[in-house]
UniProtKB/TrEMBL annotation:
Pfam families: ABC_tran, BCA_ABC_TP_C. The keyword ATP-binding applies. SUPFAM superfamilies: P-loop containing nucleoside triphosphate hydrolases (SSF52540). PANTHER family: ABC TRANSPORTER ATP-BINDING PROTEIN, CONSERVED COMPONENT OF ABC TRANSPORTER FOR NATURAL AMINO ACIDS-RELATED. It comes from Streptomyces cremeus. It comes from the Bacteria. Signal peptide: none annotated. Keywords: ATP-binding, Nucleotide-binding, Transport. Gene3D superfamilies: P-loop containing nucleotide triphosphate hydrolases. One of its GO terms (molecular function) is ATP binding. This is ABC transporter ATP-binding protein. Residues 13-261 form the ABC transporter domain.
Length: 264
């Protein structure tokens, strides 16, 4: 697969002092962390820690009350989701969001939509430029499907695939947007052990082979500890630890947050 397609090269994703309040509840309290280019950065924490809220801020679904999110020199703060996606931050969803009857190929082509230059008039008139562009997108869809291991499933309805493969279709669709940063919301939730292993290998391949930065919200600590280069731990909306998997695993504040032990 051509691995040199990220639009504007490597850039750090900087989250600075982000605060989100919902009617009196502070879901994120001045949270900061930096996702280094080409790394897997996990955001973990017990239930209600603020992980989904953080994810929603990064993807533009949720507006922060204060603080900023920047990708390299580009300000993402307050932009709507489609603008954030256009600037190179793609996301997958915790629950599958695939059109059930569409084939895998069509689902992946949906991911190419923002990169399509030909207007609907040229496409409708079947101009040669439109046909050339459509062929190039289809070629790329085939490359990405092969990269994630879905090459033999392109003509199947996405909704008929086993659950683990449907999640891979979602991941492949996000890759079809040629992102610089990929936000993965619980990518292995509900999977069998084999599916978890296969998906973890694909995620590592995306980082190592494509150089795309990945932000991972995941409850499966085995996957987090194996895959992540860095981990930010949230508890009750606050960042309580930040470091390598080994560092945060041994951090007393993290142990307390997960075990619910009282703070001395
Ligand atoms: N739209 C909302 N309105 C009001 N409160 C919200 C909203 N979204 C989240 N919250 C609250 O904000 C806090 C953080 O929630 P969030 O879903 O971000 O945590 P989480 O770490 O993703 O939890 P989980 O692991 O259970 O999914 C929780 O107390 C939650 O109830």
């Amino acid at each position: 697969m051509n691995t040199n397609r990220s639009p504007c090269g490597a850039a750090a994703l900087r989250v600075t002092d982000v605060t989100v309040r919902f009617a009196g509840l502070t879901a994120l309290d001045s949270v900061s962390f930096t996702v280094e280019p080409g790394s897997v950065h996990a955001v973990i924490g017990p239930n209600g820690a603020g992980k989904s809220t953080c994810f929603n801020v990064l993807s533009g679904v949720c507006r922060a009350n204060s603080g900023s999110v920047r990708l390299g020199d580009t300000e993402l703060t307050g932009l709507p989701p489609h603008r954030v996606a256009a600037l190179g931050v793609a996301r997958t969803f915790q629950n599958l969001a695939l059109p059930p009857r569409a084939t895998v190929a069509d689902s992946l082509l949906l991911g190419r939509h923002r990169l399509t230059r030909t207007g609907f008039l040229a496409a409708g008139l079947r101009l040669p430029s439109a046909a050339r562009e459509a062929r190039a997108h289809l070629r790329r869809v085939h490359e990405i499907a092969a990269f994630v291991g879905l090459a033999d499933d392109l003509e199947k309805p996405a909704g008929a695939l086993p659950y683990g493969q449907q999640k891979l279709v979602e991941l492949a669709r996000a890759l079809c947007m040629e992102p610089r940063v990929l936000l993965l919301d619980e990518p292995v939730a509900g999977m069998t052990a084999d599916e978890r292993r296969a998906t973890a290998a694909v995620i590592a391949g995306v980082r190592d082979g494509l150089g795309i930065s990945i932000v991972l919200v995941e409850h499966d600590m085995g996957v987090v500890m194996r895959l992540a280069d860095a981990v930010t731990v949230l508890d009750l909306g606050r960042r309580i630890a930040d470091g390598t998997p080994a560092q945060v695993q041994n951090d007393p504040a993290v142990v307390r947050a997960y075990l619910g032990a009282p703070t001395p």
